[in-house]
Amino acid sequence: MNRPSPTTACANPSCCATGLPVLYLTGGSILWLLAGLGLALLASLKQHQPWLLASCEWVTYGRLDAASRTALVHGFFSQMGLGLGLWLLARTGGTQITAPGIVFIAGLVWNTVLTLGVAGILVEGPSGRSSLELPGQLVTVLTVVSTLLCLLGFATFAKRSEGPTVPTQWFVLAALLALPLFAITSQVTLSIFPERGVLQAVIDGWNGQGLLLLWLAPLALASLYFYIPDIGGRPLRSPAFAKLGFWAWVFFASWTGASNLVGGPVPAWMVTVSIAASVLLLIPVAFISLNLHFVAPVSALGRSTALRFAALSAISFTVVGILTALTSPRCAQQVLGLTQFPVAVRELFLFGFVGPALFAGYYAVVPKLAGREFPCRLLPVAHLGLTVIGLGIMVFSSGVGGWLQGWALADGKVGFPEVAAHLQIWLKLHTLGLAVFAFGQTAVLANSVWLLVECLLPFGKPALALFSETSPAVAGK
Predict the structure, then answer these.
(1) DSSP codes joined into one string, 387-429
(2) What percent of the chain has pLDDT over 70?
(3) pLDDT reported for residue 468
(4) Distance CA 205, CA 262 (A)
(5) Strands (E), 306-397
(6) Which residue has the higher pLDDT, 268 or 5?
């Protein structure tokens, strides 16, 4: 269902103008991934080693945590997802990305602004808003750039070949519509004409949840809906499930913004509606999971790195949906809300669901655009293995540690210093898992750099010859 026919696919993807901006966006996102994980690792160390670099105010826990989240969400997940999303629109539409030169320049501006923003967070401190940690002027520029890129995505879709649309296109278009909507709305209501009182917390929560569930999640699902049937060689189990899952996800995800404000000074009905929507997300999770699971044969997993990452992402998506539904009610949040347990769910969402889905696209697209396979076949295996091990340690330590922390805090006989002391071992274990996970991501960087060197070597030899060759001797001398 998702595989375009040979007549609608790009005839030579490695030579078309689509390749350069996609390679730039996806390749640059790998650098942001490692930078964000480095900051996150230092922030994790500060949780149980507060004396570390205590004399430097640039590396306090609050600044490191905000900088790492900004680098990961806007530098890696958003940039990788945007590059793959534009590629998928062109691939499924049998066309090329509209104005690839503008896409490339916009990507340069995006990375420049993000670099200045992360540096500004470390030097001046974060804004205190989970969705707008960057300085205000840089947020405005990033909003304009992201809106331009989304408009180019819609232009790419508009010039597609005639034919029915597919689930991959639905999810990419939903994401491209959501990003400027959340960016412009939050910029106006929180910075230009800021609302007063608790309404700021509601808007910030709505924007933060929207970036995760209506921007990053649709991009990840678009990748899964394309590559699992395409590489597995089997169609989706039910086109009807695809439509129901898409519309149910868009509807319920847009109401979950206040689900984390239990106990806050906000109207109770707002929190109740968000909690109900979070629980009802099980409906689209069930439709999407039933449509994606068991589509690819088990034998295909051994042949494709992209399919293995897609399988990890699909499993994590189902688990995250179940955990979200179980932990959203008030009774659960009163115990687990202010503990490490939500950290486990968030990391499973980002590093278990969104990240592997994007890497599935990365491992499938980059060799086509580069015109050659990745040089080392062992590095993708190491990447996947260390990702699974590191993620497992992170989720286990935060989940179990947060569960024990929540029940200890609920026990009036246990003092807070005792709870903090018992949590130290779980924080150290989480740091270990994060270090393993981060080390695994260096494998994809090494393979990508190796591939880049191989692609540039044919151009490097003639260039060197210009400087090494001497002028020919005159005849007879």
Answers:
(1) HHHHHHHHHHHHHHHHHHHHHHHH-TTS-HHHHHHHHHHHHHH
(2) 90
(3) 60
(4) 12
(5) none
(6) 268
Q: How many CB atoms lie within 10 A of CB 263?
A: 12
Which tokens sit at 335? 């115990």
Q: Is 178 left (phi over 0), alpha (psi -120 to 50) or beta?
A: alpha
Nearest residue to 191 (alpha-carbon basis) of 264, 145, 135: 135
The owner of tokens 């189902």 is 318
42-61 core/surface letters (b: 16 or more CB in 10 A; e: else): bbbbbbbeeeeeeeeeebbe
Please say whether the beta carbons of 366 and 84 come within 8 A: no
- Domains delineated in the chain: 19-452 (1.20.210.10)
Candidate from 179-183, 184-188, 395-399 with smallest mean pLDDT:
184-188
Measured between alpha carbons, how far is 215 from 213 in angstroms, rounded to an integer?
A: 6
| Whole-structure pTM value | 0.91
Average pLDDT estimate for 211-218: 95
With CA atoms as reference, report the closest residue to 224 among 81, 386, 382. 81
pLDDT at 470 over 70: no
d(CA 7, CA 3) in angstroms, rounded, equals 11
Query: Can you tell me the distance from the alpha carbon of 140 to that of 387, in angstroms, rounded to the nearest whole number?
Result: 35
Distance CA 406, CA 409 (A): 5
d(CA 244, CA 47): 43
pLDDT tens string 40-99: 999 999 988 888 887 788 888 889 999 999 999 999 999 999 999 999 999 999 888 999
Highest mean pLDDT among 97-101, 120-124, 249-253: 249-253
- Cα separations in angstroms, 408 against 336, 338, 383, 420: 10, 12, 37, 10
User: Mean pLDDT of all residues in the chain?
Assistant: 87
Lowest mean pLDDT of 3-17, 118-132, 180-194, 277-291, name the range: 3-17
* Other Cβ atoms closer than 10 A to 3: 16
Q: Which residues contact 447 (CB under 8 A, 6 or more apart)?
A: 374, 375, 376, 379, 380, 383
CB contact at 8 A, 235 and 195: no
| b/e sequence 452-467, b meaning 16+ C-beta within 10 Å | eeeeeeeeeeeeeeee
CA distance linking residue 171 with residue 153, whole number of Å? 12
Question: For residue 255, what pLDDT is reported?
Answer: 92
Q: Which two three-digit tokens encode residue 232?
A: 């597995």
